[in-house]
Write a structure and sequence with these properties.
The protein is mainly beta and 342 residues long. It is built from one helix and 28 strands. The protein folds into three domains: 73 residues, no CATH class; 76 residues, Immunoglobulins (Immunoglobulin-like, Sandwich), CATH 2.60.40.10; 93 residues, Sandwich (Immunoglobulin-like), CATH 2.60.40.10. The strands form eight sheets. Strands 11, 13, 14, 17, 18 and 19 form a six-stranded mixed β-sheet that branches. The longest helix has 12 residues.
């Protein structure tokens, strides 16, 4: 309901007025708020409940409202007591609040998502807010690009230490050309000196690292990144032979003899195995090996003259790195012809 002039203080705001004192002749009394004695304008007598001497007065016939005054149709007697005057405010079905009058304190409970969507679509579209002094546009459409993170499928790789060495890294979703970092057990990070993009599933990585084990991290240019879950890169030197190359010795035909072979990994532990790669051992001899030494042993047989046997032995460490070394064993039959001594 619309009014010309002042309306009641707030829509739906119940106000109790100060008590008035009848004198038997006065019909018009000012209405003031009991909390601060401010003038109250109910707007209509239908918004007011008035009790006189225990009897609720009929609005419109027993009293009316004139701006901030209550006007009785007949003056209450001096013995009457005005019990209370309660202003209900302007009663409405739907009210439209004035601009900038709704505060967070006035919003209680949960706002349904459908209402939030309506607010966002109608009030935030083509608007902006200020964050740290900069205007940020709201509304419109936003495109979100999904970043496909790379993966690493290589389970192990091996390179030599303290030299520029390369290894192939397999995975998925590599984008040309990613950053590759090698992370030691201490957390030290070394960026690969060169990365060759073979395709989305293969990279060739070149780096120079000290001996040790390293995690591998790949970061595409779009920010997608992955780090191996374990230290998949081993930086290790090939086995180092302790037994000198060349002749292991000379044995007499038919003699029983044993020769020892020894090689070490780069961590100073003995290699894991020895194997005959080429050539042949003297008849009756064989190669055996355990985690510490290799042994060529047997009883010579089958030769009819002094013979030098040449062969190559391979030492293999726990990282499957190998080093080959060439050796010889000579089987002697002594002097032949006149002057022979046995």
């Amino acid at each position: 309901m619309a009014f010309i002039g002042r309306q009641s203080g707030q829509l739906g705001n119940y106000i109790r007025c100060n008590t008035i004192t009848p004198d038997g002749s006065t019909t018009t009394f000012a209405l003031t708020n009991v909390t601060d004695s401010a003038a109250v304008a109910p707007g209509s007598e239908n918004n007011v409940i008035c009790s006189v001497s225990g009897v609720i007065q009929a609005p419109g016939s027993a009293f009316s409202i004139n701006n901030t005054n209550i006007v009785f149709s007949a003056a209450p007697t001096s013995t009457d007591v005005v019990d209370f005057i309660l202003v209900l405010g302007q009663t409405i079905d739907i009210g439209t609040p004035s601009d900038n009058t709704v505060t967070m304190a006035k919003i209680n409970g949960t706002i349904p998502n459908s209402k939030l969507d309506t607010i966002a679509n109608s009030k935030l579209a083509n608007s902006s807010i200020t964050i740290n002094g900069a205007a940020v546009a709201l509304g419109g459409s936003t495109t979100i690009t999904t970043i496909a993170r790379p993966t690493i499928t290589t389970s192990s790789a091996l390179i030599a230490p303290s030299t520029n060495a390369s290894f192939t890294l397999a995975g998925t979703n590599f984008v040309s050309v990613p950053i590759v970092e090698l992370i030691s057990s201490t957390g030290a990070i070394t960026r690969a000196s060169a990365v060759t993009f073979n395709n989305a599933t293969s990279l060739t990585v070149t780096t120079n690292l000290a001996a040790g084990s390293y995690f591998v991290r790949v970061e595409n240019n779009d920010g997608g990144a992955v780090r191996s879950t374990s230290a998949i890169l081993a930086v290790s030197a090939a086995p180092n032979w302790s037994t000198s190359a060349g002749s292991l010795g000379t044995i007499a035909a038919g003699a029983t003899q044993s020769f020892t072979l020894l090689a070490y990994d780069d961590d100073s532990t003995a290699v894991s195995s020895y194997s005959l790669q080429s050539g042949s051992l003297p008849g009756g001899f064989s190669l055996t090996g355990d985690s510490s030494i290799g042994t060529i042993s047997g009883t010579e047989s089958g030769s009819s003259a002094t013979t030098t046997y040449s062969f190559t032995i391979r030492a293999t460490d726990n990282e499957s790195q190998t080093t080959d070394r060439a050796f010889t064993i000579t089987v002697s039959h002594g002097a032949s012809g006149g002057g022979q001594f046995n």
